[in-house]
Amino acid sequence: MKKECENVTLYFYGELEAQEKALFQAHLPHCPLCQKELAFLAKTQEALVPPAAPPALVEAVLAQAKPVSFWRKFYKPALGLATAMAAGVCLLVLSPNKAQQSVTESANWLAYVSVEADEEYNSFLQEFETFENEF
Amino acid sequence: MKMKTDDELIVAFQNGDSEGFNELVYRYKNTLYQYIVAMVRDEGAAGDIFQEVFLNFYRRLSEYRPEGKLKSYLFTSAHNRILNFFRDQKQNVSLDDTDEEGKAYLQEELAGDDPQPLEHLEQVELAEKIKKAALALPQTQREVIYLKQYMTFREAAEMLNRPLGTVLADHHRGIQKMKQLLQKEAAV
């Protein structure tokens, strides 16, 4: 085996430097072993061309990789905000006297509303998740 | 029309074009699937790994930094999952004894043991036998033989975190072993 024979694989895959490639090309016509090796590498490459992946599998990937919808992405914070605002408006309409109370009392009410809104929001979320699961 | 690069598709996805991901799936589905099936030799498990690789990539895609290494990223992701599969299966994941350093393979005679010519086999028949022989190789040789179908030796060495000479040696041994298997079969 000559030194050039060592480069047969790299030559086949086009991964030799220019100088080594030229040396190998000069060697190849005189080396039946390298010629046979190149022929076998070509047959191997041809035989191992990737077949198509099962379409059902590809479809499964694409179906699971659907982008998150605008509604699913923003419904939680939007719902929380809407609930808090609705609760605030109701409070002002139904209890006008309360609105005139001192700043401290208002702050207390705001805290109260916040807790109520949280509970309402959490309760809604639970119901929504139950609905989603059932659906 | 010029085909978009992987990075261009990733950036397109990050800018709201979900088709970018689909196109990447279509671009790599065949090579990744072939590689995974060839390694685990179980179509069901291969399907699971295939989906995991793409869905994991999808989940990270918005933060993925396009640096021209997507192929390596996907194959590395598949490679790691294949190793986990072998671990779970309690299969032998240790590298076989072909992993000695450097260019030891250069000492070997090329086709030194070539008693039976393969030329008489029909092309189709030969292709099937080559596939069968490739699947029968030890894990490390099989992996390099298949990876070489999709990337350069340097890329494969980088991906497998092994010296280039070792990867070349495994490829060479794999090819010689395939020849032996084919010759053995042809002699029967």
Structure at a glance:
Chain A is an all-alpha fold and 135 residues long.
List the helices and strands and how they pair.
The complex is a heterodimer of chains A (135) and B (188).
Chain A: H1 8-12, H2 18-27, H3 32-47, H4 55-64, H5 70-94, H6 96-99, H7 103-134
Helix pairs in contact in A: 5-7
Chain B: H1 6-14, H2 19-40, H3 43-60, H4 70-88, H5 123-135, H6 139-147, H7 153-160, H8 164-187
Q: What is the percent of helical residues of chain A?
A: over 70%
- What is the percent of helical residues of chain B? 55-70%
Domains of chain A, number: 2
* SSE series of chain B: HHHHHHHH
Identify the overall geometry of chain A: rod-shaped
Radius of gyration of chain B: 19 Å
Largest interface: A-B, 35 and 44 residues
**CATH fold descriptor of the largest domain in chain B:** Arc Repressor Mutant, subunit A
Strand content range of chain B? under 5%
β-sheet strand percentage of chain A: under 5%
Structural class of the secondary elements of chain A? mainly alpha
| Secondary-structure content class of chain B | mainly alpha
Q: What composes the largest sheet of chain A?
A: none
- When the domains of chain B are counted, the total is 2
CATH class of the largest domain in chain B: Mainly Alpha
End-to-end Cα distance of chain B, whole Å, is: 52 Å
Rg of chain A, nearest Å: 37 Å
